[in-house]
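Team,

Forwarding the record for the chain on the shared tracking sheet. I've put the sequence and predicted structure together so nobody has to dig through attachments.
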Amino acid sequence: MALTIQKQWYESLFENYGRKYDNEVFTQGTIGECDFIESELNFDKSVRILDVGCGTGRHSIELTKRGYKVLGIDLSESQLSLAREKAKNSNLNIDFRQHDARNLPFTNEFDVAIMLCEGGFPLMETDEMNFEILKNVAKSLKEKGKFIFTTLNGLFPLYHSVEEFCASTAEDGNATYRSNTFDLMTFRDHNITEIEDDLGNKKTLDCNERYYVPSEITWLLKSLGFTKIEIFGAKLGAFSRNDKLTTEDFEMLIIAEKS
């Protein structure tokens, strides 16, 4: 008898959800975010960039337009299909590959890795799996490589309702979130996410995402050989080193360098 492998919620979520995903509120900061990335790279066009959890390729495409060499990886073939289509329409030649970020085939190949808008991390079902993503990114980077990523700020749910925050930022046609419960023992937010995909199918998914506190991120990265680790508040489309992380920030921005 054939075994049916149950898909994880994040696999189901991103099936045929590229065009609607590009209209979500949280994907509208691409230009400003790439401005920040460029400044962090000192506008050095010779660097090789790995875009982890690239989705529909919005950061990969914008950075390629600016003259950078980017390789985008994602677990979702339907997201990658749209990324390739968008790149082709812009006459850009970008290498988009399907990979699981927990098992990347690269070793000391990239100068910079970016992982924005929860690109895989911290969506995995266990802390160990999330750690594997960080470990594989670290392995993919050259010595003195830089890792720029955002993740969910564990300080936020201690002071605010995640459900109310998501409802306050959503627009018509966006995903909706309900029945949020934040577990203080695991720092995971469990919720029911409802979306309508690009084909008009309505999906109801039982999701859970891991929120991290700054000290956890610092320790995880130190254990992987990152020595310079800086954490800031992440403002959509307006990343800045001037934004000290507070309990008001839904996401945090991490900039880490390998020794």
